[in-house]
């Protein structure tokens, strides 16, 4: 992933380890939320929880976020902007693909299209009432 990067200075190893731990904590929190809460559409419909909620609601949101990251990276590069560590668009897209490939959000990611009027990280889909439920195993 991002094999083409060349570091002028050695990477900050403690910071990388902290980032890895934080990503794991984020995943644990997402799984905890969906296994301990039921989501019911406010406009009516069946409640979902556990993996069903994770794969239907969160996967769509994650896919939307990932597509936007790639779009914004492309536009930044086209505008002559780059980050602290320059990354080619192909490497960036490949890294995003690698993060999602074979996961629960991969199909959503492949099918997600972003319209020019919906280019926001906000959630525009259905609204849900959230209820605490006994733990649901995945």
Summarize the structure.
With 138 residues, the chain is mainly alpha-helical. It has helices spanning 13-36, 50-78, 89-100, 106-111, and strands at residues 37-41, 48-49, 128-132. Strands 2-1-3 form a 3-stranded antiparallel β-sheet.
Give an overview of the whole structure:
The chain has 138 residues and is mostly helical. Helices cover 51% and strands 9% of the residues. β1 (37-41) and β2 (48-49) form a beta hairpin. α1 packs across α2 and α2 runs antiparallel to α3.
User: H/E order of the elements?
Assistant: HEEHHHE
SS element count, helices = 4
Show unreliable segments. none
**Termini gap:** 29 Å
Strand order of the largest sheet: 2-1-3
Shape: globular
Question: Could you give a short account of the major beta sheet?
Answer: 3 strands, antiparallel
Radius of gyration from the alpha-carbon trace, in angstroms: 18 Å
Please indicate the percent range of residues in DSSP E strands (runs of 2 or more): 5-15%
Q: Structural class of the secondary elements?
A: mainly alpha
Q: What is the β-strand count?
A: 3
Mean pLDDT: 86
Query: Helix share of residues?
Result: 40-55%
List keywords for this structure.
138 residues, mainly alpha, 3-stranded antiparallel β-sheet, 4 helices, 3 strands, 51% helix
Write the layout of secondary structure elements.
Elements: H1 13-36, E1 37-41, E2 48-49, H2 50-78, H3 89-100, H4 106-111, E3 128-132
Antiparallel strand pairs: 1-2, 1-3
Helix pairs in contact: 1-2, 2-3
